Automatic annotation (TrEMBL):
Pfam families: Homeodomain. The gene is Pou6f2. One of its GO terms (molecular function) is DNA-binding transcription factor activity, RNA polymerase II-specific. Its main location: nucleus. Belongs to the POU transcription factor family. Class-6 subfamily. This is POU domain, class 6, transcription factor 2. Residues 8-67 bind DNA.
Length: 93
């Protein structure tokens, strides 16, 4: 265990305001983008694909946590509608 070479962690990515605008706009339309969409966004914005994928994971988790906090602080208010997922919309049509 102690003899393994230590792996250096990658520096935290700083997103530009323009990139955040694009990512948030896409998230509002689709919280679960496909692999191809993630790749296209990464190329468009100039970030690694994995960085964009993790951004969506973190954003979904933050939304989930916000919904939980809202439910705790205001039990009489109805919860916001669940995020949309393209495959669910297709099965309803």
């Amino acid at each position: 265990m102690g003899n393994e070479p230590t792996k250096k962690r990658k520096r935290r990515t700083s997103f530009t305001p323009q990139a955040l605008e694009v990512l948030n706009s896409h998230f509002e339309r689709n919280t679960h983008p496909s692999g191809a969409e993630i790749t296209a966004l990464a190329e468009q914005l100039g970030y690694e694909r994995e960085v964009v994928r993790i951004w969506f994971c973190n954003k979904r988790q933050a939304l989930k946590n916000t919904v939980r906090m809202m439910a705790k602080t205001s039990p009489t208010a109805p919860p916001p509608p669940p995020p949309t997922h393209p495959s669910l919309n297709q099965s309803l049509n």
